[in-house]
Write a sequence for this structure.
């Protein structure tokens, strides 16, 4: 007699296959207090982590013009790019630990390290200590919490996973709106040290709340492939490899507007108050964009949204060459923010819902992809800063970032072709099985 599925059973099947509806319902709660509390906690973690990293443009501007004025823009951008690298690429390690059941160790340890790092940043006034605290230490803390917070939500949702992930991802967008407003205003009124301490206090309080809300539901996978065998298996997945390549090249351009838009606006003589809010405008539009994939997955394919949004994003990066007026700053900030949010949200769903068939390897699969993506984020901002030079030749980093973005779009198009072909083959196989059953 077959064993009835219990709450710890995880089906290993691709999203969208003809898996029995009853099995899905009995396996995933698809809601309930703890499920939505975990979503809310993950939302807060991304608000404090990814949202803070995405706000580095405020620090880039403040360090370049005032606090570390003797350092070049390229040197300063290493702080933000290393932080971004560890946020994403550390998933290679955290993904493995997450799959082995160390969710709470990563969440609590990372939250504590991030809070400690931000408080220590308030005592730093030299490039070296700032790099160690804000780049390395805060990056490690954020990296420890980021991937586990994304993946733990998949324990509770199958049918509603796209919606849940959209809500979680919007936490990063909201954080990238709130943090710049706070920091820009407090730097002027309170000074660097007090402003950073106030920011650290907010982050620490919110992370404490998140730790109290989030719960892992499923036990760790009983079997684990050796790391080398897992990599070999991933390497034979064409769609996964192409999507990872697309993300890696596309993310090289990702931080150019985030790190440099505010500085770009100020250097072009834009009113300082508007320049301070340029990052807020862009990140606000990004919040709206992040909501689109989860809301429209029933009408549009996730991979289609990723391709279209990345194409518009690449074009808007190129248009930054013409950024000289208030109107151009606002238009680019709104449009780029929106399409960047759509691309980021759809790509996360692509990895979670389309390119991962076995939830038991979800952490490692995303961790491997994010390692390569993190390398792209690491090299992008310093190259942009070097191309910019002390003469602020803005067309050079804009052109470089646009070229890398269009290369990423080409990889996404190739991913789309492979995914469509694979889905067509699966449907054909299912039709064949159905015909065979009817013939009997």
């Amino acid at each position: 007699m077959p064993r009835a599925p219990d709450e710890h059973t995880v089906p290993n099947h691709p999203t969208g296959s003809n898996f029995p509806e009853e099995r899905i319902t009995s396996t995933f709660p698809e809601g309930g207090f703890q499920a939505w509390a975990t979503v809310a906690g993950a939302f807060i973690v991304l608000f404090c982590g990814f949202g803070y990293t995405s706000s580095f443009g405020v620090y880039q501007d403040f360090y370049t013009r005032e606090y570390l004025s003797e350092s070049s823009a390229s040197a300063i951008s290493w702080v933000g790019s290393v932080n971004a690298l560890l946020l994403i690429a550390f998933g290679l390690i955290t993904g493995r630990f997450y799959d082995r059941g160390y969710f709470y160790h990563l969440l609590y340890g990372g939250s504590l390290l991030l809070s400690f790092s931000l408080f220590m940043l308030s005592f730093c006034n030299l490039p070296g200590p700032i790099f160690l605290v804000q780049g390395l230490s805060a990056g490690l803390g954020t990296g420890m919490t980021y991937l586990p917070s994304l993946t733990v939500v998949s324990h509770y949702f199958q049918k509603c996973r796209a919606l849940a992930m959209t809500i979680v991802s919007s936490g990063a967008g909201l954080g990238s709106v709130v943090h710049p407003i706070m920091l820009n205003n407090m730097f002027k009124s309170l000074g660097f040290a007090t402003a950073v301490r106030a920011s650290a206090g907010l982050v620490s309080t919110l992370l404490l709340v998140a730790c109290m809300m989030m719960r892992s539901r499923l036990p760790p996978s009983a079997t684990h492939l050796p790391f080398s065998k897992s990599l070999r298996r991933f390497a034979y997945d064409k769609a996964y490899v192409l999507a990872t390549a697309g993300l890696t090249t596309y993310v090289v351009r990702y931080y150019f507007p985030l790190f440099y838009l505010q500085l770009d606006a100020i250097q072009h003589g834009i009113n300082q108050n508007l320049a301070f809010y340029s990052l807020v405008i862009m990140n606000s539009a990004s919040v709206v964009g992040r909501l689109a994939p989860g809301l429209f997955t029933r009408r549009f394919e996730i991979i289609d949204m990723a391709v279209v949004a990345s194409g518009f994003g690449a074009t808007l990066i190129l248009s930054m060459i013409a950024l000289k007026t208030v109107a151009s700053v606002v238009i680019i900030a709104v449009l780029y923010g929106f399409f960047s949010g759509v691309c980021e949200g759809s790509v996360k769903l692509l990895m979670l819902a389309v390119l991962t068939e076995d939830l038991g390897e979800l952490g490692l699969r995303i961790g491997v992809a994010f390692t390569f993506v993190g390398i792209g984020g690491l090299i992008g901002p310093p190259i942009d800063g070097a191309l910019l030079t002390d003469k602020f030749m803005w067309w050079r980093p804009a052109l470089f970032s646009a070229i890398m973005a269009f290369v990423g779009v080409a990889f996404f198009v190739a991913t789309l072709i492979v995914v469509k072909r694979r889905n067509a083959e699966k449907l054909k196989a299912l039709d064949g099985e159905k015909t065979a059953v009817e013939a009997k």
Q: What stands out?
A: The chain has a mean pLDDT of 81. The chain has one domain: 29-216+225-439.
